[in-house]
Write a sequence for this structure.
């Protein structure tokens, strides 16, 4: 393709609202433009990268036995009401009414639509297992879109759904799709980890996220320093063994702690370690309030709390609700004399001796607090976030943290949707049973952004060859020079005839502009036709390494064929 015919509006300055490298470079290099907050147009170069990623996804999904289809983005509210998610999904679901006052949602995900489709069309175990997938735009009304394509309100996603008559069949397909995803991200050149994850609003159990390692990632990965264990920090279990300090229990005492609200303030004021403090937080777990206790140097993990209660929604109670229910502000909360809400605690709280907690009275705390003597806990459980240095949950090594960008997620849904929506099949004995389901998603536009985040330098993007918008960037220094122009056209025809994807910069621009744009766009190989055109010699530059090679045109094809598979 000739560059003069393309829409590639490059920018010299970094856009003011672009915070991270991928967002900055995809805008500067002319791959996309913002239409509204969290909503983007993909320009020709960006579209080509997306198509490359989609093709890799299709090849791996097809190889795993999945079949492509396309479902509507506009979904009837009735389907979401059948599953129950219409009432629980939250404000991210974009809802609307048509002219007849019928309610719809723009597809954030497609469990309800695919379940209703298969429910109506598949009746016998003989048709199972069945795995269907699509690549489609999704919509989620993010409260704070940011980081370009990493957190948008409209994005491109591959979602797949499998249907089974046995858990063994689901396990087998889950492993096949897991491997397909690993292949996809490996082929895209990404440094990633598959980590144990939470299923969130999707429901189900046994789920993994595929995380691209990046300092700008919004998720934290907890991984072992000596094994291959990795989990989202929300899901990593704590296996610490705690021991009580060898000191006698002292008499409970209420003390004045005027204007001391936080754990740090209270521990400093009372001159005790934060681990001797008991943190008390009021949560709303579905429709009930629960007081959750943790050690002062630990943080309550709301995902573990949700799983403990098998709840749909867990959220921290507001200051107003806290005062109404427990009669005091958040900074003075404690478990002593609390009888109107259930109290649960992290395991570490059981071992605090002569600790400190709020007195449920402004400006006062208790000291010498001991669990069971001074307050009762209905349940102890692992309710805190794992910390760096904790033992790895697999018993091998210590935990370290890394940041990650989620690009894929695989779930074992079980019968969560099929039971709610009546998706059954007849087994060998003619008995109706609910289909067992799996769900699998890849963020296609997120994958493009993640590659841009990992593959760049101070000059611009550095695309891996198999997803670069073009493989070759052909530049003629001076098209007014007939020899240069002739050789450039000759090479352009040669590359096309040999099925190389080539972008030919035929613009009437200064060489410096062409080279700067070329580095910014980041195609794997650049061929420059310049002063030695009369000798048939051109300059070949490897974008990844910066290596420059002077080479005769007759040797060019062989050299390109040698280099591209390595880039």
């Amino acid at each position: 393709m000739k560059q003069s015919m393309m829409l590639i509006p490059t920018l010299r300055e970094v856009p003011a609202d672009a915070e991270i490298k991928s967002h900055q470079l995809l805008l500067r290099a002319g791959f996309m433009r913002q239409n509204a907050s969290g909503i983007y147009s993909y320009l020709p170069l960006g579209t080509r990268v997306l198509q490359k990623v989609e093709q890799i996804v299709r090849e791996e999904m097809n190889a795993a036995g999945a079949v492509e289809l396309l479902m509507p983005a506009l979904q009837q509210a009735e389907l979401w009401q059948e599953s129950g998610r219409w009432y629980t999904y939250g404000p991210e679901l974009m809802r609307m009414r048509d002219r007849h006052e019928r309610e719809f949602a723009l597809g954030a995900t497609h469990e309800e639509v695919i379940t209703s489709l298969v429910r109506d069309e598949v009746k016998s175990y003989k048709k199972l297992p069945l795995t269907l997938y699509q690549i489609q735009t999704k919509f989620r009304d993010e409260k704070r879109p940011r980081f370009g394509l990493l957190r948008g309100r409209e994005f491109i996603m591959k979602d797949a759904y499998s249907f089974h008559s046995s858990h063994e069949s689901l396990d087998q397909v889950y492993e096949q799709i897991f491997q397909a995803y690993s292949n996809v991200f490996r082929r895209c050149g990404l440094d990633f980890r598959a980590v144990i994850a939470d299923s969130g609003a999707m429901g189900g159990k046994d789920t993994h996220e595929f995380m691209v390692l990046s300092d700008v990632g919004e998720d934290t990965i907890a991984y072992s320093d000596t094994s291959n264990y990795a989990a989202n920090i929300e899901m990593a279990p704590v296996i610490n063994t705690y021991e009580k300090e060898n000191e006698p229990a002292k008499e409970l005492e209420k003390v004045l702690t005027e204007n001391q609200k936080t754990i740090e303030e209270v521990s400093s004021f009372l001159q005790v370690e934060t681990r001797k403090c008991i943190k008390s937080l009021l949560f709303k777990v579905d429709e009930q309030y629960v007081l959750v206790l943790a050690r002062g140097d630990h943080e309550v993990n709301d995902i573990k709390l949700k799983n403990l209660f098998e709840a749909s929604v867990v959220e921290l109670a507001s200051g107003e609700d806290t005062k109404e229910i427990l009669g005091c502000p958040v900074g003075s909360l404690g478990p002593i004399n609390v009888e109107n809400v259930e109290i649960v605690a992290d395991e570490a709280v059981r071992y605090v001796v002569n600790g400190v907690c709020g007195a449920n009275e402004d400006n006062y705390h208790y000291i010498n607090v001991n669990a069971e003597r001074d307050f009762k806990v209905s349940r102890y459980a692992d309710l805190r976030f794992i910390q760096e240095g904790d033992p790895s949950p697999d018993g091998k090594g210590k935990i370290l943290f890394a940041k990650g960008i989620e690009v894929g997620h695989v779930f074992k849904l079980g019968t969560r949707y099929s039971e709610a929506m009546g998706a059954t099949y007849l087994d060998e004995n003619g008995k109706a049973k609910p289909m067992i389901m799996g769900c699998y998603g890849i963020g296609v536009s997120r994958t493009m952004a993640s590659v841009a985040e990992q593959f760049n330098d101070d000059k611009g993007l550095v695309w891996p060859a198999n997803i670069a918008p073009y493989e070759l960037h052909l530049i003629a220094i001076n098209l007014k020079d007939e020899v240069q122009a002739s050789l450039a056209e000759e090479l352009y025809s040669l590359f096309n005839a040999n099925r190389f994807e080539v972008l030919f910069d035929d613009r009437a621009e200064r060489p410096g502009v062409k080279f700067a744009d070329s580095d910014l766009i980041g195609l794997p190989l650049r061929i420059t036709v310049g002063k030695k055109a009369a000798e048939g010699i051109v300059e070949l530059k490897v974008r990844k390494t910066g290596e420059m090679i002077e080479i005769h045109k007759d040797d060019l094809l062989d050299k390109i064929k040698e280099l591209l598979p390595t880039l």
Q: What stands out?
A: The mean pLDDT is 95. Residues 75 and 105 are 5 Å apart (CA to CA). The chain is about 25% helix and 30% strand. The longest helix spans residues 167-187.
